[in-house]
Specification:
Bound molecules: ligand PMT
Strand order of the largest sheet: 12-11-8-13-16-17-18-19
CATH topology of the largest domain: Rossmann fold
Number of strands: 19
Shape: elongated
Radius of gyration: 25 Å
CATH class of the largest domain: Alpha Beta
CATH superfamily of the largest domain: CoaB-like
Number of helices: 15
Strand content: 15-25%
Amino acid sequence: MRSGCKAGIIAFLKGDAATWPGIMMNKPLISLKNRRILLGITGGIAAYKAAELTRRLQDQGADVRVIMTRSATEFITPLTMQALSTHPVHLDLLNPDTESVMGHIELARWADLILIAPASANFLARFASGQGDDLLTTVCLAAQCPVAVAPAMNQAMWSKPATQTNSATLVQRGVQILGPEDGIQACGETGSGRLMAIDQLVVRVSELFNTGRLQGKTVMITAGPTREAIDPVRYISNHSSGKQGYALAVAAADAGAHVILVSGPTNLTAPDRVELIQVISAQDMHAAVQAQIASADVFIGVAAVADYRPKLVQQHKIKKDQNGQRSLTLELVENPDVIAEVAMRADKPFTIGFAAETERVETYARKKLIDKKLDMIVANNVGNTEIGFNSDVNAITVYFQDRAIDLPKMSKRSLSEHLIELISQQLIEAL
Ligand code: PMT
């Protein structure tokens, strides 16, 4: 469970920005730990503040990589930003050196958040008009993660209808505009256009990750495949990569939950913010879930759990020509149904199942919803090879007893955010 102290910090951060004392910044903002922030720096006198911003984001545990526009390099050197971020600074689109380190599409995929600070009037205009004529605008176009911009410019430039329209266009498209602030400007004029104070900017950035909808809740998620041993070298398994379950774990942690991720074997790295329990077989998964389920408010069964396992696990490798036979029969026995047992509990958490189907998706999903006594089931058609197993994208239908909601094809990350929002709403309605 999350500590009262942490809950207090988050509640405080949700208050009026103007009242936040700088002392708050001495406390760790958990939501930035291991966050991958791609910092875009554009040309303007406030560019020098990007150095401090990088440091402050790193103080909170974020991994910061930097893109600079050519005009930004007139105000602060790439070498300074490279030394601070400890990574090569990306300057040009299609530069063979930096592209070989991390190409522009990879950079866009890498980021959990793209933050452009300071953002010039010229950048806002190019971003709003959908241009991709340099590295920063191209990465913004390719981004699937949230994008935030912190404008900084002369007050007259900020107040011009063109700039205001560009800013409003970006807001409409889901871009977060952080600032600008009022005050005395480098040019000697006074008005709105200053880069938001760095302390405050870091708090606002952390808030973008922290929806707080599941604050104080414990969410247990199963993910990945299970492996059912046949002999010391062989097993029965399936194509689950764990991507969907891990994406949900991140989204639940972003929403403020304490997340227990019970994972079958995968090649994925779980975020530090998540309590990871690694298991191999369905029986291991069953035992791990049973051991901690009493503390869970929500249970999400994303794992592709093997329904059956070999009755006998051979002590030695089965030989091909055993007894001169040209066929091999394995006797299988049923595994425990992890989610059905969770849903049977007297203190049952809100229980969400997944249904991987290749035909009659709705019929089978609804049957599982009823048979396993689930509160909600997420159906995906894994007969479609573009989505579902091992893909970075998925398309789902969420079935409740009385209604269904379609979520069209999108990244597993975005889908998970929608699902967590949906689950949060259900919890609120159930109160
Ligand atoms: O891991 P990825 O590559 O990202 O792929 C994601 C996914 C396709 C695996 C995922 O989206 C998905 O559909 N997961 C459920 C797969 C599945 O095995 O479904 P099922 O219809 O067999 O099981 C229904 C539900 O019962 C599931 O919540 C499952 O976790 C649970 N179950 C099943 C059997 C069992 N013995 N115990 C269980 O808890």
